[in-house]
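Deviation from plan, reported transparently: oxa(dethia)-CoA complex.
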Amino acid sequence: MEGLQLIATGGAQPSRVVTNDDLSRIVDTSDEWIVTRTGIRQRYFCSDEENAATLAIAAARQALERSGLSPEQIGCCVCATLSGPNATPSVACQVQRALGLPENRPALDVNAACSGFVYATAVARGLLLTLGGKYALVVGCEALSRLMDMTDRSTCVLFGDGAGAAIFRLADTPFAATLGARGSDAILTGGPNRAGSAPIQMDGRAVFRFAVEALPRCLHEVLDQTGKTLEDLDWVVCHQANGRILDHCIKHLNADPAKFYRNMDRHGNTSAASIPVALNEMAENGQLVPGQYLACIGFGGGLTWAGMLLQYKGANQ
Ligand code: UT7
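Because the crystal trials were delayed, the predicted structure below was used instead.
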């Protein structure tokens, strides 16, 4: 009983849609440049009333309802974010309170930037194995619009806000995870610091080179750990940073592009939220079918990278 199965998902997106044309009225850019370089057509930004915690609570509530579980059955709550509204209470503690999760269970935030959701899932599995419990609530949530310099065209066109949530069950099932980190502030940095909040800054080309190396490596590692091949997978759900990163990796892997889910055209790069937002869309669209195997791969700031391979079971399986 040491693997995790995905049994339910939830999602929440902010009310405000921001198109590429909207951004071209703020900075010197164009829909054509953004679509060609990134595949992004629009993204969602939080209104004044919304933040990473309000989105996390909505997504987590939906996932819990769909799982058919009671709050008492949730063994831990782990939220991946780098843009929570407060250092404390953590987003996870705000979710615990809003959903009435048991007080004798851990709730904590994990910051591993765009690898955060996979990191948080691995942390949740470790907590279940250490403390007992069968079900984990894991959320990825971001309000990156609060961390962007809206005069910097090289970053403000890339990121968006959103949240996705997942309920996992500890089970006797194929499962693998790989996590890694290489501390560096040379190519991607930003966010709250002692002096206030520094906008996200990025050397886009260096991040691109890092991503196209890390993504296939993580995928191969989880395949090797489980003895599966790419053909055995129904889906590869990668961090939705940029369509060109996926194109490059698919070509390098000689993989079927249809297995690689994409939604960056509608959401932009939502960092830790991107993988669970994608999983939730796939479940809602009926693209995720109980019994399917999927790999989730994250890469980003830190630098961090993370992969996991698991089975989707659905709530009543
Ligand atoms: O979660 C990880 C997050 N990060 C990423 O996924 C980023 C990975 N990197 C990338 O996807 C690409 O590097 C970018 C999409 C960020 C940039 O594409 P690029 O082809 O590497 O462009 P570049 O940075 O080399 O810039 C090319 C030109 C420059 O103009 P000059 O110097 O050639 O005249 C930039 O100033 O494009 C210009 N540029 C823009 N033009 C219009 C940069 N941003 C924009 C913009 N609109 N928004």
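The pocket of oxa(dethia)-CoA is lined by residues 29, 33-34, 37-38, 114, 153-154, 157, 202, 204-205, 207-208, 211, 241-242, 245, 269, 300 (CB under 6 Å). We consider this an acceptable substitute for the interim report.
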